Amino acid sequence: MHLMVVGAHCGDGEIQAGAIAHKYAEAGYKVTFLHLTAGEKGAPAHLTVDEYRDQKIKEAEKAAAILGGVSITLDHRDAELTFNEEIVKEVATIFRREKPDFVITHWVNSMHPDHALCQKIVQDAWLKASLPGFDLDGLPPHGLRRVFHSENWEDMDGYEPDIYVDVSDSFKAYLEALSCYWFIMNSSSFRYYDYYKALGTVRGCLARTTYAQTLQNSKGLHVRKEGHIPGFPLPGGAK
Fold this sequence. Notes:
Elements: E1 2-9, H1 12-26, E2 30-37, H2 49-66, E3 70-76, H3 85-98, E4 102-105, H4 113-130, E5 146-150, E6 163-166, H5 171-178, H6 182-186, H7 192-206, E7 212-216
Parallel strand pairs: 1-2, 1-4, 2-3, 4-5
Antiparallel strand pairs: 5-7, 6-7
InterPro entries: GlcNAc_PI_deacetylase-related, LmbE-like_dom_sf
GO molecular function, one term: hydrolase activity, acting on carbon-nitrogen (but not peptide) bonds, in linear amides
Organism: Ureibacillus acetophenoni
């Protein structure tokens, strides 16, 4: 089984679902973090945009390793993401090559255009990857089983979590992975580390556990505490 977390920028997928990813990696799932851009335009004063891009790609690789996965960063520019056939087919080709069983990505609404476009790209790529009529590097069709949306402070318009995943045993690794990113630890505009640490605590309170991360699946599904993602149980009775 393969879990893929798709984010608009290096760091998005990790903050949104890094603890979930670690939980599944520990249970034997293959885990991949796919970043559509590096998120390099927020470069600090001591780095050029290109230098910061290189730094963020390395930070993503280090964070993914801590979480038990691998990192892939595409060659698109931060804040210039466009919804077109080229990028949809690029992601669809990755889906066919990597064969993820389920994908976690951004919620449909966001204050950041790249985030909103990312989930649209994922949804369209899901369709094209599954249709035999599309020739994508000669790879056979592959259909994702499910796509879930995860929680990001910039994507909260209409986000109502209906899945709470107990990540208590993975939260230490999650915080260690977050600390790999310069922007998470040093941003002067938003306290990323404090927010996501506190969010894990709050979601854990609501799930009656120590720490939790949330997903939104669809209206009408109300799962407050499963310990795992419904439809993707942890193998071997892992908790």
